[in-house]
Amino acid sequence: MDVELDRMEILAWLERQSPRKVLIQSPLGLRSFAEQVERLAREKGYEAFISLSPTWGGCDIAVEEAKRIGADSIIHIGHAPFLSQTELPVLYLEARYKDYTPLQVLLNDISRSLEGRKRIGLGLTVQWLSHLQRLVDDLKARSFEVMVGKPGGHLAHPGQVLGCDYSSLKDIEESVDCFLVVGSVFHAIGVALISPKPTLAADPHTQRVEWMDERAKKVLASRYYMIEKFRDARKVGVLVSRKPGQFMMGLALKLKRVLTEHGIEASILVSDELVMEGLVDFGYDAYVNTACPRLSIEDQARFSKPLLLPVEVLVALNMLSWEEVIEKGLLLNLSLNVP
Ligand code: SF4
């Protein structure tokens, strides 16, 4: 599928910032755009560097790397603005699909699946956001009432969803019969983990439409199994990512204290990328994940020990009931309730 980057936006930003050195970041799959942007900057006389480090979201801005090479600004390709403040100026170049066709051809399947439901809460990943209004119109033409929520939390646009932020949908939860999420199962299942309202995933890449309820049930069952396992842990590692949008040292310190008060030995482990390979030599019985919450959902299988979300730790310690977590949503930031 064709992605578009706004050349004029890049040039205008470079002119405004007039950087001494600029670092260009891109996720895998969009690396060719980093080359294009670097060439564009170079041709205009700017000193530009391409980052090879992985980047997973707008939370993951390479500030440390930029500072290390003396860059005074960053161009981040692919994701929408996530952080309200950064140490260095950042241009977020959102990657948006130009072509509506893959979504348009899914409309019949979407309408069929939504049959019997009237009021639809709509969420799209940033890649599909250029087609938001057209999709709203097409759904209305098929007699659905469509609601689009305002951006909140880390979201930059109305109707946008992120793997860790569904505030646009939570905002309209009471007014809709169900949610429709355009993008991927990854994004849609997250909605099913923050709301009891049914969620339909529409993935224009795979041309699949699927209700998320069964998958969400399985995730919740496996999360509860991990909570039970965590209850046997005597020595726990509290993981902190130093990525600017994931850095939660205050929360990690609180969790360490709470664990210690419950007789569990706890240490804080800091890294950029949190991967099992970096943990194999340690003797921890379990881990707490204060970084990207989706690591505990999607990547738990790659960790040989329980990797609990902060809110799940409270359940393991009997400070919060599992029913309350399910009711409020596993991915909601209940971690803020850590005393
Ligand atoms: S924290 Fe995780 S889900 Fe949220 S934007 Fe970053 S990588 Fe994506």
How would you explain this protein's 3D organization?
α8 links the parallel β9 and β10 (199-203). The mean pLDDT is 94. Strands 8-7-9-10-11 form a five-stranded mixed sheet, with helices on both faces. It has a four-stranded parallel sheet with strand order 3-2-4-5. The protein has a four-stranded parallel sheet with strand order 13-12-14-15. α9 crosses α12. Helix content is 34%, strand content 20%. The chain is flat and about 60 Å long. It is α/β, with parallel strands linked by helices. The protein has three domains: 3-95, Diphthamide synthesis DPH1/DPH2 domain 1 (Rossmann fold); 101-211, Rossmann fold (3-Layer(aba) Sandwich), CATH 3.40.50.11850; 217-337, Diphthamide synthesis DPH1/DPH2 domain 3 (Rossmann fold). The chain has helices spanning 7-17, 31-43, 63-68, 101-104, 107-114, 132-141, 167-170, 185-192, 213-230, 249-261, 294-298, 310-316, 322-328; strands spanning 3-4, 21-25, 47-50, 73-78, 90-94, 96-97, 119-124, 145-148, 178-182, 199-203, 208-211, 235-241, 265-271, 286-289, 307-308. Iron/sulfur cluster is lined by residues 56-59, 82, 162-164, 245-246, 292, 294. Iron/sulfur cluster binds next to loops.
